[in-house]
Design brief:
The complex is a heterodimer of chains A (401) and B (401).
Chain A (H helix, E strand, L loop, with lengths): L1 H21 L5 E4 L3 H11 L4 E5 L2 H5 L4 H9 L3 E5 L8 H13 L4 E6 L1 H16 L8 E2 L9 E5 L11 E5 L6 E5 L7 E4 L9 H20 L5 H21 L7 H21 L3 H13 L3 H16 L4 H10 L9 H19 L13 H12 L10 H10 L4
Parallel strand pairs in A: 1-9, 2-3, 2-4, 4-6, 5-8, 6-9
Antiparallel strand pairs in A: 7-8
Chain B lengths: L1 H21 L6 E4 L3 H11 L4 E5 L2 H6 L1 H11 L3 E5 L8 H13 L4 E6 L1 H16 L8 E2 L9 E5 L11 E5 L6 E5 L7 E4 L9 H20 L5 H22 L6 H21 L3 H13 L3 H15 L5 H10 L9 H18 L14 H12 L10 H12 L1
Parallel strand pairs in B: 1-9, 2-3, 2-4, 4-6, 5-8, 6-9
Antiparallel strand pairs in B: 7-8
Helix pairs in contact in B: 2-4, 5-6, 7-8, 7-9, 7-11, 8-9, 10-11, 10-14, 11-13, 11-15, 12-13, 14-15
The complex binds fe (ii) ion (2 copies).
The site of one fe (ii) ion (FE2) has 5 residues of chain B, from helix 7.
Chain lengths: 401, 401
């Protein structure tokens, strides 16, 4: 284990340098009710004439893109709509979108939707200008040319994908998730528009919100965290704790509450695009690939279980987070604060109607899930490494007993 | 000359690599549109700051521009103190005063409200405060280790683009020589691009600052560091300025749409120079500012058409492209004709917004010395072709007439 640990750490050191070299970007943002229409205006200002909207059918049927389309029409921007995105989009779907954009000779892409639409649009944008099959973009810095100008209007507050250099696409056959990493994936601009989030069903608000919280916490306690990423991670965590119960309750249509959640998700994105995630995501990705469990839900369930494991190694960081989020009392020791923080997450889950366990997990799958999760998780800047039996034990606790 | 050119190009090559490695491509989080300054206050509240120091100048304070901002911050439970000691071309003394003020009040974030001078002063204060350093100690590239004190910005002129650059200019207390601080930590956390605070800007200031933004757009566009990305922003900025600056200086001076377009243009031009830098117009303008106190934008405006004359050959294609993007000239025109048209269009714009053709403060006997200093600075920029001393002198002679 010791040799492995130093091997992983050495690999992290190289990765950290690579991240420095890759650099980061941020989108220009428009924030607040109807900022999505401001974003349309920016597209016109930037001289764009033909845009393809990347979205999903349910959103189109709910009429969520009507206002945006009308505004683009008014600005004399031609619009094509590609609404074939489904959860966990595959390369096949991305390819379809690329063909559609070529046919419409689009000069920009506007993603309207959750993480799936945004990630698919990112990979379309970079494949289009580089004239490559999307599968070929998997890996680090595979695009030579700037992506087609990409604009983003997230309709969930969770993935933070509007702020990150990454996109996750599923393999057509194995449904394994593959990652495209490139600063060119960062959108030109993003609108955080709470008016588009007020109708989000509770269970989606809850799961996506917990995804954002997981980004905030995993980036905060990871060894790549910097003053800057902790600044954003802490703000995001505090805002989620304060606003997520409201957003899932009677204030679900409150624009202020929804805006805070959207900002929190964006800040968490700013944090983890530099400081990465950890084992919660590593395990959640396997649960998503194997059983189709939604990403946010899997994260929400795994978060307290993984934190229990990391509690000692990340004690000071967790205590710091607890203090920033006003959890626990001033007189508590770091150990007590870390525990109070984890307990707080458990009770938040309960309040949001998120179960403590996941029915779909089968005991006989656990060894294989753990192996895959470790393969992914050991490449993340986690506060302490897991071995196979530890990982199996953590997953087993998420199983219905 | 050939040898020197090769030397300069080599130096620039390394600068470019260093820039990619160290400076990244960050932006502030932005809120855009009328009253977005109040949104910015809300964003600040999200980070739980206790005590904000507003960095501004006396005239703005007396106009009451900071009043609504202060009120809003206080409503949101933040304490506010105001440092209004910033003057044009801020000196180290002023910055030291501001630092002292912030320490006395134990401020945990800064909010710059003003033009480039207030923003630059606040940037240097923020970095000195966090690193416990004197202003002179942070002059140069990457001279500080710690993240700056969180900095927020509300530009009140549409010109410098300082809200989105990683540089700050400060003046020596005695010699008034300008020196540069470059550090990605100078990037503000968030900026409000709010046309309301620009409505009452006098036409002369609107004109000069707007021409500064145009100079950024043009110099970035023709720079040898320019990329698809920087040209995307620079092209849009130039077009927006050509379209809106005459209106902003004329009867539509309080039209919020016009002011917002100018503010966004300045921001986009700022994004472009962060990557592609400025050129000889700025190199000469800085000397005229240091020696005679000529406002930065005014000096740029007068010099811009003069310097572009030098690039008729070396930047022919990019200038012609810029003309086409800006909707200047006819489709049937040759590149040479387009360059002609662009330069005369800039002259006409100067005339329309009341910018003189000459600057009578410039003294014949100072010219050789000014040219030496301008060349020293300009040869460090990625210009399309390097100036010879006699070329620079003849430009200054024309400007002095
Ligand atoms: Fe996630
Ligand atoms: Fe300038």
């Amino acid at each position: 284990m010791f040799a492995m640990t130093s091997l992983y750490r050495a690999r992290h050191a190289l990765l950290r340098i690579a991240i420095r070299l890759i650099g980061t970007e941020k989108p220009t943002t428009a924030i607040g009710p109807d900022s999505s229409l401001q974003l349309c205006k920016m597209m016109a200002d930037l001289g764009l004439r033909k845009v393809m909207i990347v979205t999903d059918k349910p959103l189109v049927e709910l009429g969520m893109i009507d206002g945006i389309k009308a505004k683009l029409d008014e600005l004399k921007i031609q619009v094509a709509v590609f609404d074939a995105i489904k959860p966990d989009p595959t390369f096949e779907v991305v390819r379809e979108g690329i063909t559609r954009a070529r046919d419409a000779s689009s000069d920009a892409i506007l993603a309207v939707g959750g993480g799936s639409s945004i990630d698919a649009a990112k990979v379309m944008a970079i494949s289009l200008t580089n004239n490559k099959d999307p599968q070929k973009m998997v890996g680090i810095l595979k695009g030579r040319k700037q992506a087609l100008p990409l604009f983003v209007i997230p309709t969930t507050a969770g993935t933070g994908s509007e702020a990150t250099v990454a996109a996750v696409i599923s393999n057509d056959v194995s449904h394994q998730k593959e990652v495209v990493l490139d600063p060119k994936l960062v959108p030109v601009a993003a609108a955080l528009d709470p008016a588009l989030m007020t109708k989000l069903p509770n269970h989606i608000t809850a799961a996506t919100g917990m995804d954002a919280l997981t980004h905030a916490i995993e980036s905060y306690i990871g060894v790549f965290a910097t003053d800057e990423t902790r600044f954003y991670g802490a703000a995001a965590a505090r805002m989620v704790f304060e606003n997520l119960p409201k957003a899932c309750g009677e204030q679900s249509e409150d624009l202020e509450v929804r805006e805070h959640m959207a900002l929190a998700s964006y800040y968490a994105g700013l944090a983890f695009t530099k400081a990465h995630v950890g084992y919660v995501h590593a395990i959640a990705h396997q649960l998503g690939g194997k059983y189709g469990i939604p990403h946010g839900l899997a994260n929400a369930v795994m978060l307290p279980l993984v934190l229990e494991f990391s509690k000692d190694a990340a004690r000071h960081k967790l205590a710091e987070l607890a203090r920033v989020c006003s959890i626990g009392s001033l007189s508590m020791s770091d150990e007590q604060l870390a525990q109070a923080f984890i307990d707080h997450i458990k009770s938040l889950n309960k309040q949001l109607g998120i179960p403590a366990t996941l029915e779909k997990i089968e005991r006989q799958d656990i060894p294989q899930l753990a192996t895959a999760a470790l393969k992914e998780g050991n490449s993340y800047p986690v506060p302490c490494f897991m071995d196979q039996s530890q990982c199996e034990a953590v997953i087993a606790r998420a199983m219905v007993s | 000359m050939l040898f020197m050119t090769a030397l300069y190009r080599t130096r620039l090559f390394f600068l470019r690599i260093a820039q990619q490695l160290l400076l990244g491509g960050e932006k502030p989080t932005t809120v855009i549109g009328p009253d977005s300054r109040l949104q910015l206050c809300k964003i600040m509240a999200g980070f739980n700051f206790r005590h904000i120091m507003i960095v501004t100048d006396k005239p703005l304070l007396e106009l009451g521009i900071t009043h609504t901002i202060q009120e809003r911050l206080e409503q949101l439970d933040m304490k506010v103190s105001i440092f209004s000691g910033v003057k044009p071309d801020p000196t180290c003394d002023v910055i030291r005063e501001g630092i002292l003020h912030a320490r006395q009040h134990d401020c945990d974030a800064l909010l710059a409200v003003g033009g480039g001078s207030s923003i630059d002063a606040a940037k240097v204060m923020a970095i000195c405060l966090a690193n416990n350093k004197e202003p002179q100690q942070v002059v140069g590239i990457l001279k500080s280790r710690k993240q700056a004190l969180p900095l927020f910005v509300i530009p009140t002129t549409a010109g410098t683009g300082s809200e989105t650059t990683v540089g700050a200019v400060l003046s020596d207390d005695v010699t008034h020589q300008k020196s540069l601080v470059i550090d990605p930590k100078l990037m503000p956390i968030a900026a409000a691009i709010d046309p309301v605070v620009m409505q009452k800007l006098p036409a002369s200031v609107t004109a000069a600052t707007g021409m500064d933004a145009l100079t950024h757009a043009v110099e970035a566009y023709i720079s040898t560091f320019s990329t698809r990305n920087s040209r995307f922003y620079a092209g849009a900025a130039a077009r927006m300025i050509f379209e809106n600056l005459p209106n902003a200086c004329g009867e539509q001076s309080d039209d919020l749409e016009v002011r917002e377009k100018m503010a966004l243009a300045a921001y986009y031009a700022g994004l472009a120079i962060t990557k592609a830098h400025v050129g000889n117009v700025h190199a000469i303008a800085h000397q005229l500012g240091g020696k005679y106190g000529i406002p930065h934008g005014l000096a740029n405006a007068v010099l811009l058409p003069q310097v572009l004359e030098l690039y008729r050959v070396s930047a022919r294609q990019s200038l012609a492209e810029l003309a086409r993007i800006s909707g200047i000239g006819e489709l049937s025109m040759s590149d040479d004709q387009l360059v002609d048209t662009l330069i005369s269009h800039i002259r006409q714009l100067n005339e329309k917004v009341g910018i003189p053709q000459t600057l009578n403060q410039v003294q014949q006997q100072d010219i050789p010395e000014l040219a030496d200093a301008a060349l020293k600075e300009g040869n460090g920029y990625p210009v399309p072709s390097f100036m010879e001393k006699r070329q620079c002198e003849s430009i200054l002679v024309k400007v002095a007439e």
